[in-house]
Structures are given as structure tokens and as C-alpha cells.
């Protein structure tokens, strides 16, 4: 187990899910780090375009991946974006809400990358 001090990630769920299979953990984390940024960028573009249907579906698509890495606080913030977009509420606040998540995701990617280094 690593001695990384996580701010946003929690590896407990992924450890349990994988049965401690280091190779599987690496694959999941690498996929998360590779795929989540373009998914978030797509969500941002839907919010900018005012395409609330696609925005809420994209937020819904991203949410489960955050659970894998134990980023439940960020997941909850994304849930709020999903709910507001789906219900067409407070739509003018959605880009700002996403902007508060983005720096947290950057830290999360750094945490996961550092954790990956301990798995070699």
C-alpha cells in the first residue's frame, strides 16, 4: 500500500473491486486518466452550447468512473450538474459549477498518477 496522502481519491473501493489485482488497478487508473479529461471537455462544450439534454447525459456517463477512484466529493458535484441540467434549473450556474470541479480533477489526476508509480 502506498503512503500517498490523497485529497480527492480513495483507493479502497478499487482495491476491493479488483481483489488487490495490481494489473487491473493500473489498467483502470490509466483508462480513467486518459478518458476522463475528454469526457469533461465534452461536458463543458455541451454546457457552453446550452445543450442540457446532452450535458446531463454526459455528466451521468462520467459519474460512475469517479466512484471507482473514490472521488465521491467530485462525484456529488457532478451529480448536482446532472440534476440541474436534467431538470433545467439554475442553468446559468452550470459552467461555474463545472469550473469548480476542474481544478479538483487536475489534483485527482496527479494523485492517481503518483499512486500508479507506486504500483510498479
UniProtKB/TrEMBL annotation:
Alphabetical keyword list: Phosphoprotein
Location of Phosphohistidine modifications: 60
Recorded superkingdom: Bacteria
Protein name: HPt domain-containing protein
Location of the HPt domain: 21-120
Amino acid at each position: 500500500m502506498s503512503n500517498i496522502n490523497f485529497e480527492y481519491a480513495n483507493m479502497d473501493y478499487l482495491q476491493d473491486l479488483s481483489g488487490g489485482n495490481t494489473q487491473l488497478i493500473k489498467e483502470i487508473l490509466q483508462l480513467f486518466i486518459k478518458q476522463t479529461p475528454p469526457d469533461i471537455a465534452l461536458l463543458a462544450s455541451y454546457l457552453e452550447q446550452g445543450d442540457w439534454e446532452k450535458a446531463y447525459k454526459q455528466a451521468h456517463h462520467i459519474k460512475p468512473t469517479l466512484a471507482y477512484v473514490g472521488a465521491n466529493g467530485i462525484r456529488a458535484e457532478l451529480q448536482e450538474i446532472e440534476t440541474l441540467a436534467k431538470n433545467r434549473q439554475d442553468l446559468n450556474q452550470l459552467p461555474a459549477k463545472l469550473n469548480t470541479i476542474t481544478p479538483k480533477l487536475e489534483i485527482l489526476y496527479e494523485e492517481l498518477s503518483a499512486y500508479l508509480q507506486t504500483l510498479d
